[in-house]
Amino acid sequence: MKVRAGCEVEDEPQPDSVFHHAVVCDLHTLLQQLDARDTPQRAMRPLHDVPRRGFETVGRSANQLAHLRNRHTPTSLVPASGRGYLTARHPCDHSETRIRVLDPLVFSSLWAAAVTPWLMYAAADANGFPLPAAAAVLGFAGTLVVYGLDRLRDLARDRVTKPARSAFVTRHAGSLRGMYSLAVPVGVIALVQLPPASWLPVGLAGGLGLFHRRLKGTPALEVAYVAFAWVTICIGLPVTAARGSLAAAVPSASVLALVLAANLVASNAAEPGVGPTRRLAAKAVALCTAGLVVCALPGAQTLWPIALFELLAVAGLAAGPTDTERYGPVVIDGALPVGAAVALWLG
Distance from first CA to last CA of the chain, Å, rounded? Predict the structure, then answer.
């Protein structure tokens, strides 16, 4: 007897599912009714192994069963856009399926844009001044435009490193362009309601964001200027909008700089060809730990939940999640607003 697909079956070729599919996840109940005398039902495939290895399978879709005599479908027979759905985990494990429900938010850049106002409110609270609503709206709209344009303009490179996101952007390119176009006038209206001093950090961060496609390529440099742009918006914009003191905001800016640098290092670790994932995750953990230490300084003491939640997220990357393309934006980026919300609640 062998144990496969969560039940005991006879020592005969059995369908071994590898896809997260509702029908496949009910397979274990069907296998319990199989008898040794039953003829296995085969998936659609060529009749012989030799032509199967030599030619692309015709008429086979990604949600069909794998070859009965092979535990996993050869990756050459799976479209590039669907390879991210293959996993060595049990097919009825819905943990990653639940993450994929967030694809419209994550891959449209709405998820990244939502991080900005949360960090801005947490930084303003740490420095003891109110954040104008126009500043939060500008931070959201600006981040949405910058990240959205980068996704649209860099599809050729992203198809290799981010196949699922690239497929989503390609399918919904028209709707995404419309959403980003609407965000531009919203950001402009919010900008004119702020004092002129706020225009400087907006110009610095916006310029770096718009030229990000030309500047990126060197991981260390990319981490430095992207973290600087985020700190400029999340700290510089709230301070100038509230006419606060930039010197007093240095401790909170230092915490966010370290945490955001850790976020970027960990996000890069999910891309192939950047470097060993565990080594990069260790660097991200070190940066988050340094951010926690800096939280002891006056003006940054309420920001420790942001550093702590990000530390937990990047430490999880070292465990080797199977779907790193979604783990990065959902968990690693999602730890920032969650930590900011906890900081506001405790503060």
Answer: 59
Residues 117 and 84 in one domain: no
Q: How large is the C-alpha radius of gyration of the chain? A: 24
Cα gap 160→151, rounded to integer Å: 13
Q: CA–CA separation, 156 vs 168, rounded Å?
A: 13
**Helix H or strand E encompassing 68:** none
Q: Are 331 and 313 in contact (CB under 8 A)?
A: yes
Q: Is residue 154 part of a domain?
A: yes
Q: Please indicate, yes or no, if residue 98 is contained in any of the structural domains.
A: no
- The model's pLDDT over 211-256, given as tens digits with 9 standing for 90+, comes to 766 666 676 788 888 999 999 999 999 999 888 888 889 999 999 9
Please identify which residue in the block is written with the tokens 């399978």. Answer: 57
SS3 341: helix
Residues 81 and 125 in one domain: no
Q: Are residues 148 and 286 in the same domain?
A: yes
Q: Tell me which residue range forms the domain holding 260.
A: 103-346
Vertex 29: Cα angle to 27 and 33 (nearest 5): 110
Structure tokens at 29: 């109940």
pTM of the model: 0.69
Count of domains observed in the chain: 2
Query: Who's near 171: CB < 8 A, 6+ residues apart?
Result: none
Residues 275-326 have pLDDT tens digits of 556 777 788 889 999 999 999 998 899 999 999 999 999 888 777 777 778 8
Query: In what helix (H) or strand (E) does residue 208 lie, and over which residues does it extend?
Result: helix 199-210
